[in-house]
Specification:
By secondary structure, the chain is mostly helical. Helices cover about 80% and strands about 0% of the residues. The longest helix has about 55 residues. The chain starts with a helix and ends with a helix.
Length: about 150
């Protein structure tokens, strides 16, 4: 049970690392998009696609920041460290209490995991859509200037 708790806590920390990577990527794309907005060319469709991509990236940025929000993670301390004098008298009772506590914490953390995973998926999808729309808008704008 303790190993499963460790895996769960590592997984939740991994979600935060992935969200921070997506947040950085979205920030770079937003910066590049805003700096290239003046070079779109005369095409009428280019700004619509380009600004839709910027909007998708902006929503993705908000989603990534919201993905950090679920921060409350439950864990249980080992009762052996709290009450070392009771170990020899009631070790099986302490072990049962520890397992019950870990089960409650593990189930509570599953809700946090689901929320973080939903934000991660939403952010990743918005990043892909936003980057594709930015590239499409810029491509249409550049092709419109080359004609």
């Amino acid at each position: 049970m303790a190993t499963g708790m460790g895996f769960q806590l590592n997984e939740l920390a991994g979600f935060d690392q992935k969200v921070s990577l997506l947040l950085t990527t979205i920030g770079v794309l937003l910066g590049l998009g805003l700096s290239g907005a003046s070079h779109l060319g005369p095409s009428g469709l280019a700004p619509a696609a380009f600004y839709a991509g910027l909007l998708a990236l902006l929503v993705g940025l908000v989603s990534a920041i919201a993905g950090y929000r679920p921060r409350r993670v439950e864990f249980t301390p080992a009762p052996l460290g709290i009450c070392p004098g009771l170990v020899d008298a009631s070790a099986s009772l302490l072990l049962g209490i520890e397992i019950d506590g870990m089960e409650v914490a593990f189930k509570a953390n599953m809700g946090v995991r689901e929320i973080k995973l939903a934000y991660l998926h939403l952010t990743l999808r918005l990043l892909v859509v936003g980057a594709a729309l930015l590239a499409l808008g810029y491509g249409i704008g550049v092709s419109g200037t080359l004609r």
